[in-house]
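May I ask you to comment on the folded chain given beneath this request?
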Amino acid sequence: MTTILASLQNSLLVVDSSKDGWRVREHLKGLSPSSLALDSQNSKRAYCGTFDNGLWKTDDGGDTWEKTSLNTSGCNIMSLATSPMEKGEKEFDKLFVGMEPSIIYSSIDGSSIWEKIDEFNKLPSSSAWSFPPRPWTHHVRWIEPDVNNKDYIFVAIEAGALIKSTDGGKSWKDKVKDGPYDTHTLRTHKKVPQRLYSAAGDGYFESRDYGNTWYRENKGLGNHTYLYGVAVNSDDPSNIVVSAASNAWKSHAIQDLETFVYRRDSNGENQEWTLSNNGLPESKGTVISILQANPKIKDEFYCLNNRGIYSSVDSGISWNVLDIPWSREYCLQHPWALVVRG
């Protein structure tokens, strides 16, 4: 069975596959869900962060949700991540919660006891961090615990830096020259240790040495170099899909949207990006998509935008919309997060 969690602007959708099709449940309506994470040790445990209503968890696969003990007063939750490389107490993944202003909280006991991580705010580049829509602040946009080394954590600050820790968050290394400035999504892959994939507002970047050096690879994107989502085939680290637009306004502003999905395959290095629009909604009027690979099924991707949830079973060449109810209300909302349990 495949389970999909999708956070829209005002609702969390839990979508399960079955022999009779897809079953959809709506939760946390009106609580502004912003971010999602799954626990690899517990198939029924998942987390949902909200912009101003705290952190929630489920232990029954999404049927019911309970607010956790994390005190988020004065902060918004902007990102969540779990580390399958690091088992905490009671066999839970280590959980990371990224906030605005830029702070990370971590828990090793399934969200009861918390540790604050904020030493990275002392990095030299921190004085220039600023999120353009709210220039007086910045936030932890993405947290990527490395899937090959439990001590490595990569954090994207929006906007201004992609930073890393090689000791589990005790100390931090600042951004490097020629690296991505505005990473929205970052991926690591079990089959290619040290490789990083960054979808950033300033283009697509890859590193093959844990972020010490970076390569900008935008051939084929044209002027669509504002990137938001990236997903990598769970079986083929060279098969990648990204979501893109010409600028932030075209990506997020409901009245002026024009967005695209591109793919690259495994035929050699530095391949040109090609459009992946077969079966996806028209680019105009579509919020920039959030992308995920199925972690258990090769060549399978999922795509979330304001028009629906779409799946591809041929490595991003073509897409099919999931046959689920999709209200006009959803069409007018901005999706924020997508996770898939295969």
Remarks:
- The mean pLDDT is 94.
